[in-house]
Design goal:
Layout lengths: L1 H7 L20 H18 L88 E3 L2 H10 L6 H7 L28 H15 L3 E10 L15 E7 L12
Parallel strand pairs: 1-2
Antiparallel strand pairs: 2-3
């Protein structure tokens, strides 16, 4: 199969070499048998009356023997992915995530400018994420964003990630290798990993936005987008709902 594929695109088999173990996606016969078993478990579940989640559990050869075992296939909408009693909808789409701790909403920054002109907001007024409406003044989201993308020697985190002796290129950027979190034991990842994750994950935990006001993010003077003397040295972000009844789209 591989030699036929390579020939079809003009690459000889002598040019194809296997990736080193741990540096690619490697499957053996046992892996394929395990994958097939998970597919069979999922197929059996789809035939259960009402597609009941508890039909997945049981001693049968095509059932999951324990709710803590990661057997079968995950559903796209997230239902039945948690098989603990009463928790089959935990993490499923259109369900509010259960809280384990009491929420704590951080304070914003006091207004250094008057963003609404003659109006209720005055210079020096405090802001807080406890607000359910209106503007929250907070420069930190942009600061965090700038630190994440800064791969220059001025960023200690970038220096540590690049490794000892790393030298920046002509643009002043350090090369940070694309390494899996387990330091190369798993296959490397790229932008396809991000796209795949967003496709499945956003349907489960993308938080509804637009009903809790706005975050006003002033730019600092060292920001690459900062223009001296400009009245628009700020960014505006839509706030997410702190919680919402998605089933009825009712009030917060």
């Amino acid at each position: 199969m591989m030699s036929m594929l390579m020939s079809s695109i003009g690459v000889g088999t002598s040019q194809v070499s296997a990736a080193p173990v741990g540096q690619g996606f490697n499957l053996n016969a046992a892996d394929l048998r395990f994958i097939m078993a998970q597919i069979k478990i999922a197929e059996t579940h789809t035939a259960a009356p009402g597609y009941a989640c508890d039909a997945l559990l049981g001693p049968g050869p095509l059932q999951v023997p324990s709710p803590v075992l990661p057997y079968g296939l995950r559903t796209v909408d997230g239902s039945c992915n948690n098989l603990q009693p009463g928790q089959s909808e935990f993490g499923a789409a259109d369900n509010v995530f259960p809280r384990m701790l009491t929420p704590t909403y951080r304070q914003g920054e006091n207004w250094a400018i008057d963003p609404d002109g003659p109006g209720p907001i005055q210079v020096g007024d405090p802001t807080s994420y406890e607000q359910k409406t209106g503007l929250v003044n907070d420069s930190q989201p942009r600061t965090v964003s700038n630190l994440v993308v800064d791969q220059s020697p001025a960023n200690p985190a970038a220096v540590a990630a690049a490794g000892p002796g790393a030298v920046p290129d002509a643009s002043g950027t350090l090369f940070i290798p694309n390494v899996a979190p387990d330091v190369g034991l798993s296959a490397p990842y790229n932008s396809v990993f991000t796209l795949f994750g967003q496709f499945f994950d956003h349907g489960l935990d993308l938080v509804t936005k637009g009903g809790s006001g706005t975050v006003f993010t002033p730019l600092q003077e060292d920001d690459p987008l900062y223009i001296p003397g400009s009245p628009t040295n700020f960014m505006v972000l839509t706030r997410a709902y702190p919680t919402r009844n998605f089933a009825t789209l009712g009030p917060l």
